[in-house]
Amino acid sequence: MLRSMQDLKTYTIGATDGTIGHVTDFYFDDERWVIRYLVVESGSWLASRKVLISPMSIGHPDWAKKSLPVAISRDQVKGSPDIDTDKPVSRQQEIDYLGYYDYPYYWEGAGLWGAGAYPNLTTPGNAGFLAIERPLLPPGAKDSTLGEVGRHEHDDLHLRSGLAVTGHETQAVDGSIGHVSGFLVDEETWAIRYLVVDTSNWWIGHQVLVPPQWVTGVSWPKREVSVHLDRDKVKFAPPYDPALPLDREKENAIYSHYGRPAYWTAPEPAKCAA
């Protein structure tokens, strides 16, 4: 099922021993279009510090209570690496963060989450955890995984703030079609399946859905998202009503309108030139 990230921004994060805080933002990977971290405002118990929570720690959400339980404790969160969420997150900071929680690196492997398509399959304590076993080394020997960390610490990072992208003007091949007003996310894989584009500043005021696979570029200085679509196609695309559930029939109508293959028939992951 798909969830609106606008709704998730009010959700509570519950640790194994109490509440951590509530979601205020998220970081997504603009190469594979997957939510990598939730930004959580901790509240008074941690001096209102903002912390990152990986979907790899999230268990079964309670959608009715707007709660996301995580398989970590408040003490673990308190001792986690301090990351300034108002600045870009570096690869070295990610390495420190994932190493602290003993999580695998999601960028290593062909799946959306490294070795697999689902984040909770890589989380300690969850059924199906894909453990990474490192062999015991003789004294003086070097662990090859340390070299692997070194090769990735200066990677060109593709993490973007969802709040920062919201409001970006959306450019078709022949002109503006509106602005990004939200994101629809797969609740199991945390993959972004659609950008919600508000056409009210160009057309008569409805919203349309644009799959990220059709994004050809993101310009952060210009605050623009470019898509491989023409304005007429978007103009007559099926409108999106957030008050109604988005079922597979409605999704099929979107892809049929554009004459393109659906994401559930295409191989993962999808990449774009950002």
Outline:
With about 270 residues, the protein is α+β, with helices and mostly antiparallel strands.
Labels describing this entry:
274 residues, alpha+beta, 7-stranded mixed β-sheet, 6-stranded mixed β-sheet, 13 strands, 18% helix, globular, disordered C terminus
How are the secondary structure elements laid out?
Blueprint lengths: L1 E3 H4 L3 E4 L2 E12 L4 E8 L8 E4 L13 E3 L4 H5 L12 H11 L42 H9 L6 E3 H4 L3 E4 L2 E12 L5 E7 L8 E4 L4 E5 L4 E4 L3 H5 L12 H11 L16
Parallel strand pairs: 2-6, 8-13
Antiparallel strand pairs: 1-9, 2-3, 3-4, 3-7, 4-5, 8-9, 9-10, 10-11, 12-13
Shape: globular
**Amount of beta strand:** 25-35%
How many β-strand runs? 13
Number of helices: 7
Largest sheet data = 7 strands, mixed
Return Rg in Å.
20 Å
Taking pLDDT < 50 over at least 5 consecutive residues as the criterion, the unreliable ranges are 125-150, 269-274
Describe the structure.
The chain has 274 residues and is an alpha+beta fold. The protein has 7 helices and 13 strands. It has helices spanning 5-8, 74-78, 91-101, 144-152, 162-165, 231-235, 248-258, and strands at residues 2-4, 12-15, 18-29, 34-41, 50-53, 67-69, 159-161, 169-172, 175-186, 192-198, 207-210, 215-219, 224-227. The chain starts with a strand and ends in a 16-residue tail after the last helix.
